[in-house]
Write a structure and sequence with these properties.
With 178 residues, this protein is α+β, with helices and mostly antiparallel strands. The protein has one domain. 19% of the residues lie in helices and 38% in strands. It contains four helices and nine strands. The chain has helices at 2-15, 81-84, 107-114, 117-124; strands spanning 26-27, 35-36, 47-50, 53-62, 74-79, 89-90, 102-104, 130-147, 150-170. A five-stranded mixed β-barrel has the order 4-5-7-9-8. The radius of gyration is 20 Å and the shape is globular. The protein starts with a helix and ends in an 8-residue tail after the last strand.
Length: 178
């Protein structure tokens, strides 16, 4: 009897992925062309999506040596209202948390498409704290989750469709903090 209980317990334990966690809750707008991707790793809480999306967005390259990010500069996309209606959003906390800022995983590839050579070189050299503009871009590998208890959205830059407002360096605001 004891052996049967041990075998039964082992079979139940081995049928569950070790370290598996439930992913965050998200909602898919009717206008979204993305589809939910399978969980990449059992411990990955982020929800990942397949497909490409074209976004009209403000972009901000930010050079901040104290940011802690692997990439310097890093790039954020801030989609317009129409674009937000096509992106999945978090519902984990019982209210919609929209992708108001999307962290781009490949900022240097985006810089080559969005910036002229001179501005790109100056940004990489740290001569500008921030460079921003407005464009229509294509992204993929969209993901949604929480980072340090804040809504977090990520994507990969694929291509530039159209520049609406050319990139320009913004005046430095000095050190920023939380």
């Amino acid at each position: 009897m004891k052996e049967t209980a041990i075998v039964l317990a082992l079979s139940v334990l081995t049928s569950l992925p070790l370290g598996a966690v439930e992913q965050y809750k998200v909602a898919m707008p009717a206008a979204s062309t993305l589809t939910r991707a399978p969980q990449a790793r059992p411990d990955d809480l982020f929800v990942h999506f397949r497909g490409q999306v074209t976004l009209h967005a403000t972009y901000r390259f930010i050079y901040d040596q104290d940011s802690g990010y692997k990439s310097n500069p890093y790039l954020l996309l801030m989609p317009d209202e129409k674009a937000l209606k096509s992106l999945p959003y978090l519902t984990e906390r019982g209210r919609p948390e929209l992708a108001n800022a999307i962290f781009v995983r490949n900022p240097m590839e985006a810089a080559k498409a969005l910036l002229n050579e001179k501005l790109e070189a100056e940004l990489q050299a740290g001569k500008h704290q921030e460079v921003s503009g407005l464009a229509t871009v294509v992204i993929d590998q969209f993901g949604a989750g929480y980072d340090c208890d804040s809504p977090s959205f990520v994507a990969r830059f694929v291509s530039l469709e159209k520049v609406v407002v050319a990139a320009a360096a913004t005046p430095s605001l000095g050190k920023r903090g939380c």
